[in-house]
Design a protein that fits this description.
Layout (H helix, E strand, L loop, with lengths): L11 E2 L2 H34 L12 H15 L8 H19 L18 E4 L12 E4 L3 E5 L13 E7 L2 E3 L1
Helix pairs in contact: 1-3, 2-3
Length: about 180
């Protein structure tokens, strides 16, 4: 039996503390993504110069970089903990996928994420029973709380949601 997978995108009406939390989390994810790309550029340049041989890896996996962040970077940058761990991990996995596509010849070399060209999204899985609950005029987003929707009745009520993304585009927040 196949299940129908559907996605909806709607605008959020956030208060200032929720906006601040999302902006901070997006900045942390962008920072980690850029750190991951910089680390892999350094390794790739070593490989191209012949310093690394074929047996050594040309790039760090997202799992290894996440361990590195958890053990060493958090001492330097304690503010990294202000972002959810799943959102941080998803950004690193997406960056790893970009490197894998590059090495297979399917895409260009991954680029750094810029603040003015926002393409980083926050990923939130459903961890608890109350997460991603939809009412007519609001939605329960994990770690952010209940958020008002700009369009009432657009999202279907009573459906099972497994995960979601929160994004920021042109001064507006979307889920």
């Amino acid at each position: 039996m196949k299940r129908l997978l559907k996605s909806f995108k709607t605008e959020l009406r956030l208060n200032e503390s929720q906006k601040d939390k999302i902006r901070r989390s997006l900045g942390i994810c962008r920072f980690l993504s850029n750190q991951y790309i910089a680390r892999n550029i350094w390794l790739y340049r070593l490989y191209r110069r012949g310093i690394l041989d074929e047996k050594q890896r040309r790039f760090v996996t997202a799992n290894d970089f996440d361990k590195y962040v958890n053990h060493t970077r958090k001492k330097k940058f304690p503010w990294i903990d202000q972002c959810g761990s799943k959102a941080r991990k998803k950004v690193l996995v997406n960056a790893e996928q970009a490197f894998r596509r590059f090495f297979k010849g399917q895409a260009h070399f991954p680029r750094f994420k810029r603040k003015n060209q926002q393409n980083v999204k926050l990923y939130f899985p459903k961890n608890n029973k109350g997460d991603w609950t939809i009412w007519r005029h609001k939605i329960q987003v994990p770690t952010i709380g209940k958020v008002r929707l700009k369009e009432f009745g657009y999202l279907p009520q009573g459906v099972t949601i497994k995960n979601g993304h929160v994004s920021y585009e042109a001064g507006r927040y979307y889920v």
